[in-house]
Amino acid sequence: MHILTHRKIVEFAAKHPNAARALDTWYRTMKAATFTNFGEIRAVFPATDLLKENVFVFNIGGNTARLVAAIHFNRQMVSS
After folding, report:
1. What pLDDT is attached to residue 2?
2. Domain residue spans in the chain?
């Protein structure tokens, strides 16, 4: 998947070092993946909730942080 807002993730990780490793893992996993639906995301990230259509909340690092992202499965794009 193509992640549009990596800068925001890096900035947050710099301010919150306790979440940095988990955010990096999330980023690398998402970048390498090709998800086609919520079920596939949930299989990899079980602590993920659907907020509204195509908007997901990921619990990062055992609930250290939450990442809200819009995922466009047809274009394989993620923005947070």
Report:
1. 84
2. 2-79
Helical packing angle, 6-15 and 17-32, nearest 10°: 160
Phi, psi for 14 (deg, rounded to 5): -65, -35
29-73 pLDDT, tens per residue? 999 999 999 999 999 999 999 999 999 999 998 888 999 999 999
Answer whether 20's CB lies under 8 Å from 64's CB: no
Asked whether the beta carbons of 64 and 54 are under 8 A apart, the reply is no
Question: How many residues comprise the chain?
Answer: 80
Give CA 49 to chain center in angstroms: 11
